Please model this.
Amino acid sequence: MTGYYAFLPNPLPPQINYDRNLSFLLSEAARLLGDLSGTGRILPNPYLLISPYIRREAVSSSAIEGTLTSLSDLFFFEAAEPEKPRVPDVREVKNYVRAMEYGIGLLDELPICIRLIREIHKVLMEGVRGEDMTPGELRRKQNWIGPPGCTLNEATFIPPPVKEMNDALSGWEAYLNSNPKEPPLIQCALMHYQFEAIHPFLDGNGRIGRLLITFFFCERGFLSQPLLYLSAFFEKYREEYYSRLFAVSQKGDLRGWIDFFLRGVANQAQEAISDARKILELHAEYQEILIGTKKIPECAHMLIDEIFLNPYISISKLSKKWNRSYNSVKSGVTRLVRIGILRETLKRKRNRIFYAPKLLDLLTANETN
Model:
């Protein structure tokens, strides 16, 4: 094999010029992040937002890597499981949800560290394309980034060789756990770039790097609930996202990446606050409808909360989940169908699936697929 040039990122932290424009971006992003965290603190049931937000992130982050599944496909699969998915890629997106939920739980025991990323990588890659790429293990050979089928010598970007990769990853971990002096939003931007430049796994690096953004804000206490997800912004501006990351390595343009990252935080925090208001208003509207309806079955109010976790529901699965009779759950579903909250997806005798069309439209309104 002929020789090749690999990139070795400089150790963190770099020198950063905090000029007027950067100070403004930092202030605006921090303000909106604080507003979002405050929204999370006053929610009576934050999981009404957390569940759909995590799934939106999973769909957007996976789409950046070419995995094409809609939010509706993911919700339907989770309701109908273990049926065969109607879209093959949906299992990969479901793994992202599992990795996110598992990682947030791990933060009670671990800081952001090499052990944590290996644990979530194992979940992310389990049973899907790339599972032969040593899930949960740091790479032991050279990898590279480039067009499909390109060789090492044709690559767009070649991350550090294995020895240097291990050293750089140890430095990345040490920086994050050394009480850095940079503002937290800057730390997070540096963390994401450095991880992507190191590229420590054979597959799944982009998705792990984006998961780490949410983990960072939760672990450091800047979000009371995991409600901020940047992948929708990165997907919308995918070309700029990649070019900003590459420009740091190729031209030393760290500032361009930081500015882009901060714009993403501000944009997504503002969007999350707006969406939270709409979702909670619809939840209150549904509850008001029930209050004004005579002889509502006992489980109808439970169904309202359930559809905000997933707007698709299966009577048989809810019967098992709640330890209630099938007919008891069916009576609640039937009533919600009559008053227009639920609608049946397909007419079939077994494993009937229903969905909340108004809620589903609200949750999928910003999809770019």
Notes: The first strand starts at residue 312 and ends at 314. Residues 254-291 form the longest helix (38 residues).
